Amino acid sequence: MTEWKNWSGLVTARPERTATPPDVEAVVAEVERARDAGTTVKMVGTGHSFTAIAAPEHTMLRPQGLTGIVAVDRDAMTVTALAGTQLKHLNAGLEALGLSLHNMGDIAEQTLAGAVSTGTHGTGGVAAGLAAQVVGLELVTGTGEVLRATESENADVLEVARVGLGALGVLTRLTFRVEPLFLLEATEQPMGWDEALSSFDQMTAESHHVDMYWFPHTDRLLTKRNDRLDADPSEASPLPRLRAWLDDDLLSNRAFGALTAAANLAPRVIPPMNRVNARVLGARTYSDVAHRVFVADRDVVFREMEYAVPREAGLSALREARAALDASDLHVSFPVEIRVAPADDIPLSTAGGRDSFYLAFHTHRRADHTAYFALMEPIMRAHGGRPHWGKVHTRQADGLAPLYPRFEEFLAMRDRLDPDRVFANGYLRRVLGP
């Protein structure tokens, strides 16, 4: 029996059947087989969700047979790719075509299906979430139907299924609205706590994309502002190769990984270690094509919980989170990531219907994350926080439904597209109900 684990090591599954479908017809055959047998089927992606959202219970489908860009429409400015394509390969393919997504997160290992279905997002911009850039999709429903949805065909399915949690069908292709390839200039600057929080609204108003990282047990944050340049991509000014290797490979990955792993054995060293780490950060400015600025290598394996609170409650929630951590006896070595997103119109998007402020809490994979996340989660809940579908949380359907005005609309679409719950698993039963 095959064993499957997600990237963080938090989830393990032992499916009874494994297949790598090479085309949509093979996906249909697997879905029909599962439905006829009264079992379930899941496409697992690359396992970058921290939750068990993709965990297979009976049949596991691997995405490697459904990869690559299959259509480019320069008049409509759209690109269609098979849903098993990893984001990093889509980004490279788009760059070769002189095209780019508008926005993305800072990890590109996920498949398109997994990233879109869980609500993966970046920060700022006109659209922060990947799903908000989707204008068409194809999926295999729980009855084996191949259903195509665009803004003019099955538009109601497109609207709901962009963040579908894997509960509505197996995504086989996705069409994204794209833009001409553009440059971003990144300005990274350490700041004190008071300065960063007091200037945060101004930074987000003046820059296209803003990200902040607070180092627990310190008064220091790293701010990153990404701004679009009116310049040809050939005019990029990336970091010198040696500086990039030193900062992003040696210090941010290898040294950081070694230090945080060692600190697990002696947690009392974490506060002074964080103070040193925060102090050695220097300011830097560079520019490059968009995906090279948005995306960062993340070699250190971690666990993560992220909540989206209403934008106006964000700084208060951050201050309360810091106060709670300072008053506890916990020692946390990883920074807290802070991002914002404009509202979108997707029923189960964490930014659905409201501008949002994201707080992401991380621990090293060998550190016990439970007490830390349990301390932070009630604070996020008190501010009306919505948990990221692909990151650790304890919420259940009865508590999630009031957070999403269109929750029942999603459930109705699930009843329509997967009446026999062919795509169900333990996680979906918890967050959506049986």
The proportion of strand residues reads 15-25%
Termini separation comes to 27 Å
Structure class? alpha+beta
Tally of separate helices: 13
Kindly report the average pLDDT value.
95
Residue stretches low in confidence (pLDDT < 50, at least 5 long) are none
Assembly state here? single chain
Q: What global shape is seen?
A: globular
Question: Any overview of this molecule?
Answer:
The chain has helices spanning 24-37, 87-96, 112-117, 155-161, 193-206, 241-263, 270-280, 290-294, 314-327, 370-382, 397-400, 407-417, 426-432, and strands at 4-5, 12-13, 17-19, 41-43, 59-61, 69-73, 78-82, 99-100, 134-140, 146-150, 170-177, 179-180, 183-192, 209-214, 220-229, 284-289, 302-310, 336-341, 356-364, 386-387. With 434 residues, it is of the alpha+beta class. The strands form 5 sheets. Strands 16-13-15-14-18-19-17-20 form an 8-stranded antiparallel beta sheet, with helices on both faces. Strands 6-7-11-9-10 form a 5-stranded antiparallel beta sheet. Strands 3-5-4 form a 3-stranded parallel beta sheet, with helices on one face.
Overview in brief:
With 434 residues, the protein is of the alpha+beta class. The protein is built from 13 helices and 20 strands.
